[in-house]
Design brief:
This protein is 58% helix and 9% strand. The protein has 14 helices and eight strands. It has helices at residues 5-14, 43-47, 70-79, 112-124, 128-146, 155-169, 171-182, 187-197, 201-206, 243-262, 268-309, 311-327, 332-345, 350-372; strands at residues 21-26, 30-35, 54-58, 61-65, 212-214, 222-224, 226-228, 231-233. The chain has a four-stranded antiparallel sheet. It has a two-stranded antiparallel sheet with strand order 5-6. Strands 7-8 form a two-stranded antiparallel sheet. Helix 8 (187-197) crosses helix 10 (243-262). The protein is globular and about 70 Å long. The protein starts with a helix and ends with a helix. 31% of the residues are buried.
Length: 376
Amino acid sequence: MKKYEDLAKTIIKDVGGQENVNSLTHCITRLRFKLKNENIAKTDEIKQLDGVVTVMKSAGQYQVVIGNAVGDVFDTIMSMGLLPNSVASSGDNNQTAAADSENAGDGKKKNLFNAFIDLISGIFTPILGLLCATGMIKGFNAMFVAFGLYNNTSGNYQILNMIGDSFFYFLPIFLGYSSAKKFNLNPFIGMTIAASMVYPTIAQIMNGRVLYTLFSGTPFSSPVHITFLGIPVILMTYSSSVIPIILATYFASKVEKFFNRIIPTVVKMFIVPCFTLLITVPITFIVIGPVATWAGRLLGDGIFSIYHVSPLIAGLLLGGLWQVLVIFGLHWGISAIAFNNIAVLKYDPLLAFTFPASFAQTGVVLSMLIKLKIKN
């Protein structure tokens, strides 16, 4: 990493030094700073650095675009001690005490849209590499079957399918960790909540005796198989789901914060998680999970109603604007809807609209590579 030492030093110096940095994370291509005062950062100088593609200001973040070497640059910053560990986290967007003052300094507040984008990117960025990796494994596995290299009953297929499918099936557990980090919740509490939501026994209970049906005759009609303290529990399949676990971890973060204030320090380590789980998990099954699932369905139906009016117009707008959204880091809003569609409907046309833009960009890069012949 020595070759990045000068670049790392200069970036930290030009953003105003470590005293101007509230937090730093990185995604696949960008160092994502939250600065106390963006006005003192030397943006033009940073853009001219060898190894920096450009600088973007979006979603309350000062983003230094590095490219594929961003992880090495981040690690160099940390190994050289250019920033304290308390303000930097490797891609998990952990919100530390130092980051709580992110709106201080220049007095600017993030608007709701920027806050939403920051939230979604903070939750999904840490798992994006795994999402791509397991998706590729699933794709190659299907391709090998289509090419006749083996069939879908062979051991080869089964093992690769386990590797590729496990991430998507247990997606709530991964999101339980990343969303807990984002909401300042103990990440293992977030994972435990998610694990309870995909617990294998749920499927058996849902195939069992129906006590009665709630909301019969409405789009929210739901069979009740069990009760908790006399309260009906609407069980749902949460494997591959997105919205329920995010809302559950947000609620749990408030519960944990409350108990952290009132529980004596000597027993906090086990009493706070105990009470947090005892309150959050039942409420998730009784209220948060069903409501979030229904909301997800309504959201998916709403998006598809627009899509069904004119797929051509929808494709032109989303495909044409996609790279602009990516440049400003605003594509996460669409991605969140797409993930929800896949979880609820098992398919999604929105991301398909973006593929032509990606292929077009690949063509542009290839033509520049051939024509310009500039090594850098």
